[in-house]
Hints:
The complex is a heterodimer.
Chain A: E1 8-10, E2 15-17, H1 18-23, E3 28-32, E4 38-42, E5 44-51, E6 54-59, E7 69-74, E8 80-84, E9 90-96, E10 105-110
Antiparallel strand pairs in A: 1-2, 3-4, 3-10, 5-6, 6-9, 7-10, 8-9
Chain B: H1 6-16, E1 24-28, E2 39-43, H2 45-53, H3 60-66, H4 88-99, H5 102-105, E3 115-119, E4 134-135, E5 143-144
Amino acid sequence: MSTLNVSNITDGTTTVGTSYVVNGSAKMWVSLNDAAVVKDSFNVSSASDSGVGKYTVNFTNAFSNSDYANAMIAVDADGNGYISGKSTTSVRYNNYTTTFTDAPTEGMIMGDLA
Amino acid sequence: MTHGHLWDRLAEAKSRLEPVQSKYRVVFEDPATPDEPAKVLCPDPNWMAAALEGNILPPIDTYQRDRLVSDGQPKEHPYAKPIGPMSEEEAIEYLIMKDIDPAVWQEYRGNRTIMKIVPVELVPSDRSFRNAWKINQEADERIAA
């Protein structure tokens, strides 16, 4: 693997620091089916089906702290998804309407890696 | 040659390796929450491809030492020298030690079987009674629904 060691990236007109690119990249993303089988992902080691509508995602490269920004959504499902159990190594996605509901679920994290 | 950061290796591997869907699942119960249903852990296909390929993932003991490191403090596993290729069975064992609480796979001393590695086809596809799933304590390996 080759490494390009540069401070800035430019297209000839606009210049941006590589730190903006690195810090602005999603450090984890995942697309699960309704039984926590990973359809596609990055920086995920496994996902657990923890019960109806409850999915735990485990990270391959841990985060520095659990203050990362995390977005998730249940696909084609009415109601509210919410995030719980945030840690440096995993997070739980919950799909909830009037009760917990199985649904394909997607998530993405912006934050600092360990 | 330096082995770089784990995240860089994952990015490179993602661009090069075909994902591998595992033939296995890990079914487990958390002894701390006996009223909750059995959980089913599914390996990530990109992670499994990296495990089978080798020279991407760090040694499992680095993750175990990092469990004891406080948030915000430097962790060992992203910078550790990667290990060689694993078989799928070895990769599942690695994943158990990485992603399942030691209270399940190491410290439990009760009489129930609280963890099993099972072929995918033994996990029920009918989720009507998902919240009642428990590990079957009989000799066969199906999950009771």
